[in-house]
Every structure is written in structure tokens, then in C-alpha cells.
Write a structure and sequence with these properties.
twelve-stranded antiparallel sheet, mainly beta, Jelly Rolls
């Protein structure tokens, strides 16, 4: 497979552009001292699967984790997180039929960090989630989740386990179908 190579001044053909697999859908700046951010118009019929990234900004106290939910949904979220402390002790956390998926990113006084894959949020089927989380002092791990609903969603809410966040950028990318 040959990947496209672009240079300044190139005229891009449909074939060139159709070979690109990840497209920026939306960028949103996080406000000041907020506990959650609602990102609207993030999902549509254009893409089945997405990746959400969060970078920059800061948390009010540090040591917290990010949460995610879809639209106005407040139940039917299931998740598990397997993690190891920095001394290699393996542990797990999880919950069933809760208000959001926890452990999808980390927040401390030096920055907000997340990379969350979201599978099929716009389709009227259950939505899958996959993310990794790290805490500079305690652990690193992987979270997998599912929202058991046959509802189509266009928005999501990124929240915190506690405290507030200021600044930073949320980017939503769609995987080309």
C-alpha cells in the first residue's frame, strides 16, 4: 500500500484525500474552573468510530481521572480498568450500570491527558469505549467500557472524578469508514 505524500503547492485529487484515514471533526477549548465539558455536534453519520484527545490545561488539585458519558444519558454505562502500580502490583476497578465511564484520562496540576476511542456512538447500537489512563504517582492502566443503549448520540460529556479543570483542548477525530 502506498500512502499519500503531500508537498506545499500540490493539487490534491479525490484519490489522495480518500486515502486519508483520520479526519478532524471538532476542536473545543475547555473553559475556566469547570467540572465538566459538553461537546456537541461531535458524532454524525459520516463516521462510525472516533478518537477523542485532550491535551494542555490543568486540574485544580491533581491526581484525578476523567470520565465520559454520552448526550444526556445517566445510566447503562459499564466499564473495567486493569492497571498496575508503578511497582508492578496488578489491580482492577470497574462498575456496572453507572452514570459514566471512569478512568478515560488523567488530570493533574501540570496538564490534562486523554486518548479515548469511541465505537459506534451515532449508530442506534451499544457504544464501545477504550482508553488508557496514568497517574504519575500511583499507576498506569487500560479502560474498556460499553454503554448498553440503542440510542444515537451526537454529543458527549467529559468530566472529572473531582475538582475542576481550566484550559486545554479537546479534539474529536473520525475514522474514515
Amino acid at each position: 500500500m502506498t500512502y499519500p505524500s503531500f508537498s506545499a503547492g500540490d493539487i490534491l485529487t479525490a484519490a489522495d484525500m480518500n486515502a486519508v484515514g483520520l479526519w478532524l471533526v471538532k476542536t473545543q477549548t475547555i473553559g475556566s474552573a469547570v467540572s465538566s465539558v459538553t461537546v456537541t455536534d461531535a458524532f454524525s453519520s459520516t463516521y462510525d468510530n472516533y478518537v477523542i484527545t485532550v491535551a494542555g490545561g490543568a486540574h485544580s488539585t491533581g491526581g484525578q481521572v476523567m470520565t465520559i458519558s454520552l448526550g444526556a444519558a445517566t445510566s447503562a454505562f459499564y466499564y473495567s480498568m486493569v492497571y498496575t502500580s508503578w511497582n508492578n502490583t496488578v489491580t482492577a476497578a470497574g462498575a456496572a450500570n453507572v452514570a459514566n465511564i471512569v478512568y478515560v484520562g488523567d488530570a493533574d496540576t501540570t496538564g490534562l491527558r486523554a486518548r479515548i476511542e469511541v465505537m459506534s456512538p451515532y449508530l442506534a447500537k451499544p457504544t464501545g469505549f477504550s482508553a488508557s489512563v496514568r497517574n504519575g504517582t500511583f499507576y498506569g492502566g487500560t479502560t474498556n467500557g460499553l454503554h448498553i443503549s440503542s440510542t444515537s448520540y451526537t454529543s458527549f460529556v467529559l468530566g472529572l472524578s473531582g475538582g475542576t479543570m481550566t484550559g486545554g483542548t479537546i479534539r474529536v477525530y473520525g475514522y474514515r469508514n
